[in-house]
From TrEMBL:
It comes from Coccomyxa subellipsoidea. The keyword Transport does not apply. This is Dolichyl-diphosphooligosaccharide--protein glycosyltransferase 48 kDa subunit. Keywords: Endoplasmic reticulum, Membrane, Signal, Transmembrane, Transmembrane helix. It comes from the Eukaryota. It is a single-pass type I membrane protein.
Length: 425
């Protein structure tokens, strides 16, 4: 006999299985599946359903009509000159524009296909064949010479790095990238030390290093306007089992470390890329007259109003109250008439109060909150502001008291003059 409890358990299991997100991993070398098994096992442990495909597979399919077959994409194919099946360069951009996430990993010799794909999302790789080198922070006793770098230039964002709290150095061997200073979507997640530079190996003299003085980006992130996130890493080796398990190394500058932070770093950055962290949501957006709860459709000029909303952050699969002191609301009619900071109560509720401008028209409450590592909040709620009615104006204005006095004094003087003129002999 099938009990109701058994049915509930089966339903829960089917729901969890159906909610598991599919991840497509494109490889140009099948050995990566074994040499990078720890990275893939970490993804599997988080509930992702991973599908390994060759980048040149003729049966490769990313989209079936208007339905995407995978929610996430990981590319470990730096030398791929063409994708098989129906995947083209435009397909990958369409995949991201549809709100899907991707992790793209290249090396020091990326193909033109990978270079152009990365450039289309706002990340410029160094010329093909260049290798990031550092004569100060390279790892000693390594067969890679001065090209195995230990970097500690992390982005100052807990939303991206999450539980990577020990900040162990990241071992990196590959190519660098650069992000345009004018870019509002790109984030340098891991930078190179100030002494690192990019050049062509084998040249004895380096006259003009391509990237130097701390301007090199090793791992970059892009948060598209569609909400999708893309992470670009310039080293395939930094995801490998060898770097994940390397312990007890020393840099040329004399710093000694007990372990590398590659495994925790790559896991946390992938979580951010796959929207497991740094996601904000807004609920309970409301406004009303000061001291009241009812939300009106319009306000009168110079009214006192109060505005509030709840913001929560996704952390570890749980929505927790978001805490920040830099959230603002604007009261806009073509231009912002009011810009006010929102106060919070440490429980996710943000609020403020201000006076309606003495200009009537159609206004909007606008929340445009963009913080590196978090999903942007772009909200607008329209409300009307009307002028005073004819019977709502004050009968006596304090500022008009001198005019009132002048009128009454003139009347009194007239009667006094008339009395004196008529009755005085």
């Amino acid at each position: 006999m099938i009990t109701p409890v058994f049915i509930l358990l089966i339903s829960a299991a089917l729901t969890c299985q159906a909610s598991a997100q599919k991840v497509l991993v494109l490889l140009d070398d099948p050995l990566i599946r074994s040499t990078h098994s720890l990275y893939f096992s970490d993804l599997t442990s988080r509930g992702y359903d991973i599908f390994f495909k060759s980048a040149s597979d003729r049966k490769l399919q990313l989209k079936d009509w208007d339905e995407w077959l995978y929610e996430k994409l990981i590319i470990f194919a730096p030398s791929a000159t063409d994708f098989g099946g129906d995947i083209g360069e435009g397909t990958l951009l369409e995949f991201v524009d549809a709100g899907n996430d991707a992790v793209i990993v290249v090396d020091s010799n990326p193909s033109e296909l990978m270079r152009s794909t990365v450039a289309d999302i706002g990340i410029d790789l160094e010329p093909k064949g260049t290798l990031l080198t550092d004569h100060v922070d390279y790892v000693r006793s390594s067969s890679d010479g001065h090209s195995l770098i230990a970097s500690e230039e992390f982005v100052a964002s807990d939303a991206i790095l999450g539980n990577f709290t020990d900040r162990s150095p990241i071992l990196f061997k590959g190519t660098a990238a650069s992000i345009s200073p004018e870019s509002t979507l790109g984030i340098s997640i891991l930078g190179a030390p100030e002494t690192a530079f990019s050049h062509f190996p084998g040249k004895a003299v380096i006259e003009n290093p391509l990237v130097a003085n701390g301007h090199a980006t090793l791992v970059a992130g892009v948060q598209a306007r569609s909400g999708a996130r893309v992470v670009v890493a310039g080293s395939v080796d930094m995801f490998s089992n060898a770097y994940f398990t390397l312990a007890g190394f020393e840099t040329a500058s004399g710093n000694k470390f007990s372990k590398a932070g590659n495994r925790a770093f790559c896991d946390e950055v992938t979580q951010w890329a796959f929207h497991q962290r740094g996601v904000l949501r807004v609920t309970n957006l409301h406004h009303s007259h000061a001291g009241k709860q009812e939300q009106p459709e319009w306000y009168r000029v110079t009214d006192d109003l109060q505005f509030g909303l709840d913001i929560h952050e996704l952390a570890g699969g749980i929505w927790e109250p978001y805490r920040a002191d830099d959230v603002q609301v604007e009261f806009v009619m073509l231009d912002p008439y009011v810009r006010a900071d929102l106060q919070h109560n440490d429980q996710g509720h943000f609020h403020t109060a201000f006076k309606v401008p003495d200009v009537y028209g159609v206004y909007k409450f606008v929340i445009n909150y963009c913080k590196p590592g978090y999903t942007p909040l772009d909200l607008a709620k329209r409300v009307s502001v009307r002028p005073f009615r004819h019977n709502e104006f004050e009968r006596f204005l304090v500022a008009a008291y001198p005019y009132y006095m002048s009128v009454f004094s003139t009347m009194a003087a007239f009667f006094l003059f008339g009395f004196v003129f008529l009755y005085h002999k």
